[in-house]
Write a structure and sequence with these properties.
CATH topology of the largest domain: Rossmann fold
CATH superfamily of the largest domain: von Willebrand factor, type A domain
Distance between the termini: 40 Å
């Protein structure tokens, strides 16, 4: 056991923070040396690796290195290719039966961020008529590529106000501050407002999954062996509900929080956006090294924050991202041997150093000096309090419980019905038909208590005195599901695109009906750019939606749909409101994009 690392339980779980904007979308990564290496050679054993998004690019780089290293095992060579896919989405695809058309190349090796997903995969595969996707190797015996613990990342001044680094801090401190009506005023900083937390959706992101599990453990006072009775205890549910109440909004990827934080930092307002983010330590390293978008190529090149983040490893327990390396049951004997050789290569010092360069601990959990310095680890690093990952059945029940305990949302869906939405989107459908289907399916993921309204917009020529119109008023999803479905199915394209005036009117309407106990947000889908001369002032719109200048801000999550959409402008609007823009310029991605957008709620 390395110094500074103490396990409370035999298996450490892991956290993923995806760096991909579209949940469930795969990205195939061609190793740079493929042409002259082993990849594609008929006499070499070929293997595909599905890697979690935060390490997919790096594994592709290392695969290229491997493919040109001249390695031989049992008289054979191997060619390795990597594609990246969020751990939760990969788990669902593996259990359902990999669809190469939608999911990309079928893997023989799965490299998620956490062994938590392995247990969930086994549980969900039980009782199906498909062959078990994983073998019977105990999770504790599955090898790791690297490790990185779940942290509560805080701007340094905020952490210091709480007593960091001398005072151990944890989830109980987060709850106490989140519940205090004085907010940061209780620590002498009323200008920082209420405590707010950035947290990923646990159904899609391992960071969200692990943070949810850690909160349940902290609430119960246990470090292992949680039971159904523990989850049902009122004080446990109240604790978790209290933590969730502080969430500013959810995400499928902590990078979205970091991008907004970096922009606030550049404006000298680093303490105005979010008080803390639950994420893996490695991503904190990237942020402090000048790569807030998660791109390791920007380390040392991008702008370093004026106010860095520091890592709080919760005293009441955290989970270790173990980044397991899993050979799937479908792999042939030769592919298993090739996978074992690639694993051996990844665990050699040169490759482990490359992982350390990007902020990972080594596969034994040891932090290198660059990581320790960058994230503010004390010289004598205290032992991490690692909690035992919950049993898969308990983890599934945590997820079901989270759906009820999470912060609820008030969401205005604004859909573009301009004439260009009648253009083809592939598969025999128009853009509007594809958007309708995605919206109807995506809304099913919301909670019955979430409140949703629908607007449409184009220009006056589309009908009515204003270029936008309310189609379905606000109501809880339990009542609005059918009216929304019917209304969305009845949308038809006509007119131009009055983008700016619609966003401004939607934002003003949301502010008027602002719900202080909910996530207040707009989901905007458009396939074009502003075509409304009466309101063509983007700078004025950005000022109007700027979250830093509003006491009650409403986040605008924008979807750029189709190849004519103005992603640059939509990104500016989203960033100004401290939200995110999503790229669906390839219309076939719209279903996955809607899932990703609605993971914010």
């Amino acid at each position: 056991m390395p110094a500074g690392l103490r396990r409370r339980a035999p298996l450490a779980a892991a956290v993923v923070v995806g760096v991909i904007a579209v949940a469930g979308t795969y990205v195939w990564l061609r190793p740079d040396g493929e042409a002259e290496g082993n990849r594609g050679r008929g006499d070499c054993v070929q293997i595909e690796v599905s890697a979690s998004t935060e390490k997919g690019d790096l594994l592709a780089e290392l695969a290229s290195r491997y493919n040109t290293a001249g390695r031989v095992f049992d008289g054979h060579c191997a060619g390795v290719s990597v594609h990246k896919k969020t751990s939760g989405a990969a788990m669902e695809s593996i259990v359902a039966g990999w669809n190469t058309g939608a999911d990309g190349p079928a893997p023989q090796v799965w490299a998620p961020s956490s062994s938590l997903w392995l247990g969930l995969a086994r549980e969900r595969a039980t009782g199906t008529d498909r062959a078990a996707p994983l073998d019977d190797t105990p999770d504790a015996d599955v090898p790791s590529i690297a490790q990185s613990p779940l942290t509560i990342a805080m701007p340094k001044p905020m952490a210091e106000a709480l007593g960091w680094p001398g005072k151990p801090l944890g989830w109980a401190d987060v709850l106490a501050l989140a519940s205090d009506p004085r907010g940061w005023g209780a620590y002498g900083h009323p200008e920082w407002g209420r405590f707010t937390l950035g947290k990923d959706n646990p159904h899609l992101s391992t960071s969200g999954l692990a943070a949810t599990a850690a909160a349940y453990y902290a609430a119960s006072g246990k470090s292992s062996d949680l039971t159904d009775a523990d989850l049902a205890r009122p004080q446990v549910r109240d604790f978790v509900r209290g933590v969730e109440a502080s969430v500013v909004h959810y995400a499928d990827d902590a990078v979205k929080f970091l991008g907004n934080l970096a922009e606030a930092d550049a404006q000298g307002r680093s303490t105005s956006y979010v008080s803390a983010i639950a994420m893996q330590e490695q991503l904190l390293y990237l942020y402090d090294s000048g790569a807030p978008d998660g791109d390791p190529a920007q380390i040392g090149k991008g702008r370093r924050p004026s106010v860095p983040l520091v890592a709080i490893h919760p005293k009441d327990g955290t989970l270790m991202m173990d980044h397991p390396y899993v050979v799937l049951a479908s792999a042939t004997a030769e592919q298993r041997a090739a996978a074992a050789d690639f694993l051996g290569f990844l665990r050699q010092p040169a490759q482990q150093q490359r992982l350390a360069d990007l902020g990972f601990r080594d596969y034994q959990g040891r932090a290198g000096p660059a990581l320790a310095t960058a994230i503010g680890l004390p010289a004598s690093e205290p032992a991490l309090s690692l909690i035992d990952p919950p049993a898969p059945q308990i983890l599934s029940r945590m997820l079901a419980g989270w759906d009820d305990l999470r912060k609820k949302a008030r969401v205005l869906l604004v859909m573009d019905v301009s004439g260009s939405m009648n253009e083809p989107a592939g598969g025999g459908r128009t853009r509007l038909e594809a958007a309708k289907a995605a919206a109807i399916e995506g809304l099913k993921r919301l909670h019955p208590d979430d409140e949703v309204s629908l607007w449409q917009f184009s220009t006056e020529e589309a009908g009515g005195p204003r270029p936008y119109a309310e189609v379905v008023p606000f109501g809880p999803m339990r009542d609005n599901q059918r009216p929304l479905t019917t209304a969305i199915q009845g949308l038809h394209p006509e007119g131009g695109t009055a983008l700016y005036t619609t966003v401004r009117a939607a934002q003003q309407s949301m502010v008027q009906g602002y719900a202080t106990d909910r996530i207040n947000a707009i989901v905007l889908l458009t396939d074009g750019k502003n075509e409304y001369p009466r309101d063509n002032d983007l700078d004025a719109l950005l000022r109007d939606v700027n979250a830093d200048s509003l006491e009650r801000s409403v986040r605008v999550f924008a979807i750029a749909f189709g190849d004519k959409s103005d992603l640059k402008t939509l990104s500016s609007i989203a960033r100004s409101s401290r939200a995110a823009a999503y790229d669906a310029r390839n219309p076939s991605s719209i279903n996955d994009v809607f899932v990703s957008v609605l993971s914010n709620f």
